[in-house]
Write the structure tokens for this entry.
Amino acid sequence: MTILSRWPVLKQLGGPDRLGRRDAAKSEVTAHLQPRTVTADRVVKSICPYCAVGCGQNVYVKDEKVIQVEGDPDSPVSRGRLCPKGSASLQLTTGDAREQHVLYRKPHGTSWERLDLATAMDMVADRVIKSRREGWEWEADGKRTRRTLGIASLGGATLDNEENYLIKKLFTALGIVQVENQARVCHSSTVAALGTSFGRGGSTTYLQDLQRADCIVIEGSNFAEAHPVGFQWVMEAKARGATIIHVDPRFSRTSALADVFVPIRAGTDIAWLGGLINYVITNDKYFRDYVVNYTNAATVISEKFRDTEDLDGLFSGLDPDSRVYDTDTWQYEGGEVAAASGERDQQYEDISGDGDSVASSGHSHSHGSGGPALRGSWRRDESLQDPRCVFQILKRHYSRYTPEMVEQVCGVPQALFHQVAEAITENSGRERTTAFAYAVGWTQHTVGVQYIRAASVLQLLLGNIGRPGGGIMALRGHASIQGSSDIPTLFDLLPGYIPMPHAHQHETLDDFVAADAAERGFWANMRAYTVSLLKAYWGPAATPDNDFCFDYLPRITGSHSTYETVQAQLDGTCKGYFLLGENPAVGSANTKMQRLGMAELDWLVVRDFSLIESATWWKDGPEIETGELKTEDIATEVFFFPAAAHTEKNGSFTNTNRMLQWHHAAVEPANDCRSDMWFMLHLGNIIRAKLAGSTDEMDRPILDLTWDYPTEGEQAEPVAEAILAEINGWNADGEFLSGYTELKDDGSTVCGCWIYCGCYAEGINQTARRKPHVEQGISALEWCWAWPANRRELYNRASADPDGKPWSERKKLIWWDEDEGKWVGDDTPDFEATKPPSYRPDEDATGIDALSGIDPFIMQADGKGWLYVPSGLVDGPMPTHYEPQDSPFQNALYHQQRNPVRQVFARDHNRYHPSGTDHDAGVFPYVLTTYRLTEHFTAGAMSRWQPYLAELQPELFCEVSPALAAERNLEHNGWATIVTARGAVEARVLVTSRMRPLHVQGRTVHQIGMPYHWGPNGLSTGDAMNELSSIALDPNVHIQEVKALTVDIRPGRRPRGADLPRFVESYRQRARIDENTGMEGVTAR
Amino acid sequence: MSVTNLGMPRMGFFTDTSVCIGCKACEVACKEWNAVPSTGSLDLTGESFDNTSHLGANTWRHVAFIEQDKPIPSPEQGNSPDVRWLMASDVCKHCTHAACLDVCPTGALFRTEFDTVVVQQDVCNGCGYCVSACPYGVLGQREDDGRVFKCTLCYDRIGVGQEPACAKACPTKSIQFGELDELRERAQRRVDDLHAKGLHEAKLYGDSPDDGVGGNGAFFLLLDEPETYGLPPDPVVTTRDLPQMWKHAAMAAGTLLAGLAAAFVGRRGR
């Protein structure tokens, strides 16, 4: 076209657009407009790095730069959608909030300096070797431990499975046991609760399955805000007529879309769920055929068992001094805890003698894949009449959890209780199913595990587990937090939920297996799983003669959770610390203790995108502001390594559906940024090179370690697929294994994580499969790969009746096809493919043969769903309502106020509050509950630095009801100070009717809500909510209670400088708090 | 049948606010795609969860939050919550009669082959006429720049058959993109469905070609009156009376000239 023909006036007058309002007005630029999604050089498949929904992402690259990140429409989970955080992935990965260079703070230094990457790596390696040696311990209490307590590590949920694998492998070989990650503080309760109830500690169902539900109860979760894209499946169910019920202390964006909203007092869900259980049993609303055949309702319990009804809130077997339960009296009649009876007495002595060594070691966590082992034989009464059968015990246990009691304790009006009870019972049974979805509103309590257990009991009674549109959806929070529990950077676990060996119990491989393996079920093959792991770690060095290097594993002697580690830092035993994408100065309970602990370290290594609070506390943390610490006095050496983004590395994330999804590298990381895979591999190489030739027995595990991974490119980035291949494993012929049934205990198989076995079957990266969801059924089996064995709905045998026929046409999922002689349907059967429903085992059958054709819970020792947990949990076989650690109320059900075996710590900075009818409980009269906002992500490192997210929720705020605002003179959009015995924070005030006062036990109680994302660093700054929280832990899994605190609130900003600790101290004095406050164990009479 | 001048179907948005979860993915996805700068404000507004407040040069999708103390009548709920939280994603309406387009002196604003209204950044001279012309207050000028910026209905994306960024990201498909006629039919079915469920206040906004702007290319399903959401209840294209005004002006001018001429004729006669 000539210039003349392009001249606007001529175009206008000569063409069809005479008025110049359409085509003629188009400029050259407009005429040649092309979206960059079309002009890109390549598109790379990836997965969102934020939450655990695991939305598919397409990453567009041009000229070796990422230019766009948007949803992948092929994903069956997300269908191309992204929440605001996922939508901000471009800014996250390419914005200028990311540090590009290694930074170093010398001891007593006042500022950062640059350090080159290679020197930094070398220095860290030297420090690891030194601190390891200084903290080395061959024995404790006369038992071999072979470990170092001098080093700890925190972080892993934001990292790939391959990275977590290397971290755990390297650190274990170095003897480091204090390896932890976000799962501890987030969903560790889930593993123990679902694991002991059903045999596996992960979500029983998957997000897309929610569309098939007739009723969905969302509780302890803010689903629409924390998992927005996952929430589309709730909306699908709603569009089909399902009833959506939200139970929560505050009316959130989830409540806005629910059909029924139930306001509840934070910390009382067990009373509420117990009320529903009582309703179901009393009104005969349980699914009898399911309950009799698929649960342990009919099993008879030991006559020595005493319930909380007998002992005023306690179970039998409590040693009030050590605060440990001997679970002997809880067993099935005729059954016993795993260890052979001779050793059991020894075990008991260990338990009571050492205080809490074995019990506190978090064994409950190891039921992530394999329920507690049982020995012996027991009897069942299928009429459910025997007074000692589980059903009758359950009935009696919850007999006082009436609608009136629920109203008293929880503040829920009886009419509303009945509305929910009717909704869930009418929507359960043969023709209809109800699903439960929960998250950390349930896990983060001193009775967190029991919260989830209560829902498990309810769902088993209603017959919803293993059914389409049923189940319990555990909504996990980080991109690969499921993965970092499965391939655990956790102190108490080895990959695949094999327990970390305990010094007292597990001296040899035989002891280890005997203590833990079941006689029946798939966990009977524990030896094969363990040996295959040892071969993955130590390769040719691991032989039958040396117990496959079992001795190389460091031993635990109790709890070494992150909270114990913080105390070990304060006490001076732990001197070195790695933070790998976790920010405890904001995200962990009692942030002051976190920082004071770090101030005692010799060295700290922080790997992250930006200078998070946990990296800069020595310079500008709250203690510097108050004068409690002085920068020049802090000796901690700090290294900051900038991390690679998810677009810059290959690897797999495991989402909340237990699904492993591969993400491909789109570009290489720039400058000093490197993946954690790179960091661990090279750190390991440098350490091994420095220790090469050592004759010290201490160094054998690290030198014999198989650590020979291929690398690629100029940066020598490890080939992630090679690590995945090791996780999958191979046999003696080098063939990749297809499933864990191929694992052997003779050393001929290698497998880094038995529950992931099959993810690399046939040498194909199954986790990278991307068959579009529109070409598949709901279960979408050819999209990526889920554990176990690519089963999506767990326990799906239970979707068919004892004869193998679907309970109803409407709710069919898996059924027995007599002609084909196998189970068929729209999912991988979670059962032996060819075992008929009619199969009944011989008396002396063991292992898998001992599972009958009506045992859907194949990882449980008796193949049944456990209404009553005889073994595996330390605080009770059935959930019981206890008040939170700090509570304005007395326990209305028992004199036992709180969980008698909860973990509490009498530390100066960790004081608890007077509670209930204690004289000074009124000093902290309000209940505080905490939560997330859609716009931010956890401790803020991936959202407070992003302009697009920061502007959406720019400041920390608290939400109060108009009544509370009036009572405490709080102004909307003004400031308030919230205070506990631990600290005080300031927040803006939102006065809203969405927060409502409740009427509990004869008086009004106000609840305050506060999100926890803020810290003083980044673009959007504020105080950290966790300045307020204490360390009070669930005894099964050591998770903190941050969902129900008591606080006071006052108008105005908080004091600054030295006035701040004085202000907090004044409250402690007013409430007369000392080292005994809140520390009571048994208060039952 | 809504067709453009080229005979192609008219494209637009149907935003069903009844399924909006207020996540603001639309705001972020739009900014990421179009490189829209952040507003630069890090102050809590106190307007519920809305910290972007209104559409403007740097906010092309804006999610409003309205908290109401109000029971929702519904047959299935015996005990309805006494609080309601409305959430709605607002956007440029791409009006059939677009005043911004009418008043633009440079031809920066034009109507595309999809019947959407787009402002061309390389033509806009920042005169700001369109800003006051819009009956919804959609347009704004960028402070450090001067030019006007607004939603383009992702003109570049829809030109190659891709969805607008906000519609693609929306987790619950509150934002739906497609052929306007089909969207209007779908919206009507949805309103009827909500009425059947007892939500009688549900209504469509901007769907009717008979309204003051000739119907919108981006229309909404609301659960309350438009004013509740900060939307004008009866928007009228501000240039509606222009033809009349020109006629009157022409008549006045003509009369003036005639009078002037008459005065001269009279004078010459003496």
